[in-house]
Design brief:
The complex is a heterodimer. By secondary structure, chain A is mainly alpha-helical. Chain A is 76% helix and 0% strand. Chain B has helices at 6-12, 14-34, 53-60, 62-93, 99-112, 115-124, 131-143, 159-168, 172-185, 188-195, 200-211, 213-228, 232-237, 249-259, 263-291, 296-299. The chains are: A mainly alpha, B mainly alpha.
């Protein structure tokens, strides 16, 4: 029994290593000279493999206005995430806790929108935002998040709010709380873990988004880092070390979210 | 509760109601109308109504048919490989005391997925200097066989498998869903079957698979839809040596709209693919009802 469990442990560990390898290679390549990455066996591959060229990072950041791209991404991500958390939780509250005509049909529509392939609905949405004159602005990238565009997040909030015992709401109502107060002072605080999950997933999604920003933005000063990376790839494609440096930098914010979120996720799965 | 007006709920759901109209209902209605014109996406000067001609030319459009075929061919290897890998990983860690740690480690690449990781893979799979082919060569030399050297993204045969391989790196998403289903199912039935002398294989086929069948259907359906609308990898990694094998429906749609400036025709394509996916999903759910058991206890 002991030996079998050690075998499984080794296998789990091996999978984790294999999954980490691409990132480790990117990190290594970002610190090397191009010659070293291109070197063939027996041709300089021994010796100074651990000599790091940190200057690759400053070089990569200077080739394109990368700090500008990072700042743009940050603005889009923050604005979208706040909107997603607020609008999806409000809507989830309406579905879970309030009675209104058409609620059941509306909720069926929420589930339906969860199944809509987002890449295919992008052009039809372009049609509308083009009419509104929103092309070349951040509005098409941010406003949908303020309109509870993600059916999945609405669904998550609705399930969470439904699970909160009625007694909490009743107690607040007895003291004269309005719907808004129940939502803000009772429901949202009790749903804090879900707020965190939605915020994390929404932020990562906005940060990594590529198709929509590429369609809507044509002025490169306004590019988020995803579109900027693609430009870098097109321009400096023969410099894998600089490319990897830029890629590593662009992944730092999602990585921070992973590091913050891992504690919670681990706890959730263990129990 | 007396102050509770029926309109209050609508007020709170207003963000979503507006969103549904502006982001889904209007675009789809506008698409159906615009697809019947010759709009180029730029000006309205020469705009006129062409009726269903756009949809008719879809049938004769060789490139559109090719793109559909490519997406289907891609989905048909991507979906099974994801399902198998996700289930294997979920089963690998389900009984671990530190399964939270493993699940988090395996899930992390899923959150990093973006242009950066696609470009990392672009270099990992470089046929000459990429570490993947270097590793293959080293292993082959060690084993004393003639090294194979797939050209990955620079070959029509290997381009789609390259994407499938890249996707295995992001398998943590569907894995979490399988893991949740496995944990929910528990081990009671397994223990009973073990007492009856059922082998490991029998237990997997007759207990585990039926127990998690709703999760299998869910994962299969979401993976299928995701594969059929896949854009970023194919768009970023396509080149002339792939012989159009990465021309997926969404890529062709993008090219039609923004490179050939036939916006209305691109909308017709999108609508056609949406309808096909919708029908396929409904069929999958209806057919799935026969194979998916939502209550394993009742079946026994």
């Amino acid at each position: 029994m002991r030996r079998a469990s050690r075998k499984w442990l080794a296998l789990r560990f091996a999978v984790a290593i294999v999954l980490a390898l691409p990132m480790l290679w990117a990190l290594w390549a970002s610190l090397q000279s191009v010659d070293r990455i291109f070197a063939t066996a027996g041709n300089g591959l021994s010796g100074d493999a651990m000599e790091f060229r940190w200057s690759n990072y400053s070089t990569a950041m200077e080739r394109l206005p990368f700090f500008r791209f990072l700042a743009n991404s940050l603005v889009i991500t923050l604005a979208s995430t706040i909107g997603a958390v607020l609008s999806c939780s409000l809507t989830g509250f309406a579905f879970a806790r309030l009675h209104w005509r058409g609620r059941r049909i509306a909720f069926a529509l929420v589930l339906l929108t969860m199944a809509v392939p987002l890449n295919l609905i992008l052009l039809p949405q372009f049609l509308i935002f083009e009419q509104l004159g929103w092309v070349n602005t951040y509005k098409p990238l941010i406003v949908p998040h303020w309109l509870a565009a993600s059916g999945f997040f609405v669904f998550l909030f609705r399930q969470t709010f439904k699970g909160i015992p009625q007694a909490y709401e009743d107690a607040a109502r007895l003291e004269g709380a309005t719907h808004w107060q129940v939502y803000w002072h009772v429901m949202l605080p009790m749903a804090r873990p879900v707020v965190a999950v939605v915020a994390a997933l929404s932020a990562v999604g906005s940060w990594n988004a590529f198709f929509a920003p590429m369609i809507y933005l044509s002025d490169f000063e306004t590019y988020p880092v995803s579109v900027g990376l693609r430009m870098f790839h097109a321009m400096e494609g023969t410099w894998p070390n600089l490319m990897m440096a830029a890629a590593v930098v662009s992944m730092l914010p999602p990585l921070v979210i992973v590091l913050i979120g891992q504690r919670w996720l681990m706890h959730r799965i263990d129990s | 509760m007396g102050r509770n007006k029926p309109s209050d709920g609508i007020r709170f759901a207003l963000p979503w109601i507006i969103g549904f109209i502006v982001l889904f209902a209007l675009p789809l209605a506008g698409t159906a109308l615009t697809a019947c014109t010759n709009w180029d996406g730029l000006s309205r000067d020469s705009l006129h109504w062409i009726g269903l001609d756009g949809f008719r030319s879809l049938v004769d459009d060789r490139m559109f048919r090719l793109s559909l075929w490519n997406s289907l061919a891609y989905a048909s290897i991507n979906v099974p490989s994801q399902l198998i890998a996700a289930l294997a990983l979920a089963m690998l860690i389900r009984n671990s005391r530190r399964r939270g740690l493993w699940a988090t480690l395996y899930y992390a690449p899923h959150l990093l997925a973006g242009v950066a990781t696609i470009l990392i893979w672009f270099w990992l799979l470089n046929p000459q200097v990429g570490p993947v082919n270097r590793a293959i060569r080293a292993i082959c030399e060690f084993a004393g066989v003639v090294p194979i050297r797939p050209a990955w993204l620079y070959s029509p045969t290997w381009a789609r498998p390259s994407l499938v391989m890249m996707n295995l790196w992001y398998v943590g998403g569907p894995m979490l869903i399988f893991l949740a289903a496995l944990l929910r199912a528990g081990s009671d039935v397994h223990e009973a079957a073990m007492l009856d002398g059922a082998t490991r294989r029998q237990r997997f086929v007759h207990i585990t698979l039926p127990q998690i069948s709703p999760a299998i259907l869910f994962n299969a359906l979401t993976l299928f839809v995701a594969s059929m609308q896949s854009f970023e990898q194919a768009y970023l990694l396509s080149n002339w040596q792939q012989d159009n094998t990465l021309l997926f429906t969404s890529v062709y749609m993008y090219q039609t709209a923004f490179e050939r400036h036939r916006f209305a025709y691109a909308l017709a394509q999108g609508l056609a693919v949406l309808c096909m996916l919708g029908l396929a999903s409904i069929a999958a759910v209806v057919l799935g009802k026969r194979f998916v058991s939502y209550e394993i206890e009742e079946a026994h």
